[in-house]
Amino acid sequence: MTVPKPLWVLAGSLAFWPCYSHSDPFTYGSTNNAAANGLSWEMTGAVLGISGVPGIDVSGVLYRYTAVKDPDDPMLVHVQNESADGNGYVFRETDNWSGLPGNTINKFVPVELTPLTNWGQGSIQVDGEGEVTNASVIYTFRVDECFDPQSSPSCDGYIDPNMFTLDQASYDYYNALDDDAVRNALAATDPELYEEEEEDESVEDAEEEAIKDDFEKGLSAAQNALTMANAVSQAAVISAMNSTANIQSYYSVTIQGGVYIERQQLVDSELPENPKGLRNGLAQQLKHEEMIQMQYKNFKF
Known about the structure:
This protein is 31% helix and 24% strand. The protein has helices spanning 5-12, 45-48, 180-188, 191-199, 203-244, 275-295; strands spanning 26-30, 40-41, 56-68, 75-83, 89-96, 104-115, 119-128, 131-144. Strands 1-8-3-6 form a four-stranded antiparallel beta sheet, covered by helices on one side.
């Protein structure tokens, strides 16, 4: 159940191995300890230490931990990664410690090359009695240096940007004067073509044009006569309106009259008291005092 130590040492010392073959543009390496800060981790560049590297495929999982338990207790330990799309697990390895004493396990699990972007959250899960300590999870990977063919001239599919210069590129030029539709449109606006059409104008068209001119002249004369008649009639109307508005004759009329003397005079200098009003006021005062006394009628002091 325990991986031999030479394999652990070999796997733990993985680093980027440069590839010098033009046909094999791959580099291999390993990540940091993803479980350094706990039994659950995110597959991010900050955790794995491979931030900003494109074209990474995971090739294996190298893990180590210590199981602390009683020999008789059941215990299952799952080292796993969820699928990035949320559908199950992209990796899950289970160690059965049931009936065994606690110990340290070193294990390397090769996997089919899988893009790192498919690997979701990782964790070490314990089912049963016991706990896991001193956990270490390292991912081995392969980097496709030609993931982007333009990253290196040695990659298949690389296109030299200099080959697209104006001096080396070939272009198909379009000459509008060779287009029949354009030439027909130009011919339709050719002044010489219009002169030829005017010379070929028929006599019948000329007579119709002359008749049209005569008719327009006649209408113009009639219109001018109506305009002159309207001007005369309008002048007559305005003159009549002005004579009606003359009010000079009203200024010479004199209205008979003079000063009207006030004939009504006040003989007595003092007005006598009104007996009816006096009686009415006194009655109101008595009624008011009676109402006030009614408010205190039922009170005893």
